[in-house]
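Example record for the data management plan.
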Amino acid sequence: MSNRLQIHINFLEKLCLLTSIFLLATFLPALIRFLSLPRLMQLLTPKHNKIHKNLELQKLRIVKFTDYILNRNFLIWKKTCLKRSLILYHFLRKLGLNIQICFGVRYKKDYTNDVAEKDIEGHAWLLWNDEIFLEKDIKAVKSYLTTYSFPNDSQ
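Corresponding structural encoding:
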C-alpha cells in the first residue's frame, strides 16, 4: 500500500472515531435521562469486541478525542465524570479492553476545616485489571464508596 494511501486511511479512521465519540457525547444526556442505569449499561456495552492491532495508539486517541470534545464545555458537551466514564467505557470495551465502570458516593468534605458535611456527592470512574484507570487523583477516587459497578461478577 502506498504511503499516501495509508495517510488517507489513517485520517479517515481518526475522523470516524472522533465523529463517533462526538455523536455519543451528543446523545448521552438524553440516554442518561430516559434510561435506567442497567439498561444504559447494556446499550453501551458492545456485543462484540476485538483486540485492535494498534491497541495503545487507539486507546490514547479515544482518551484524547473524548477529553477534547468534553473540554469544550459548550451546551451539552460539558465534561462530567459520568459522561467521560461512559464514553470511555463504551469505546475502550469496543477496542477489546475488559473495562469496568464504577459509580460511588461519599460525604462532601469541607476541605478548609477537614470536616465531612451531610450532603453526598457522586463520582464515576473506570477500572481495568482491578486498578483505577485514567484518573488523575486516585486517592480521591478511593474515598468513594462503590454503589454500582458494571459489569460485575454476576453479569
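Summary line stored alongside the record: The radius of gyration is 17 Å.
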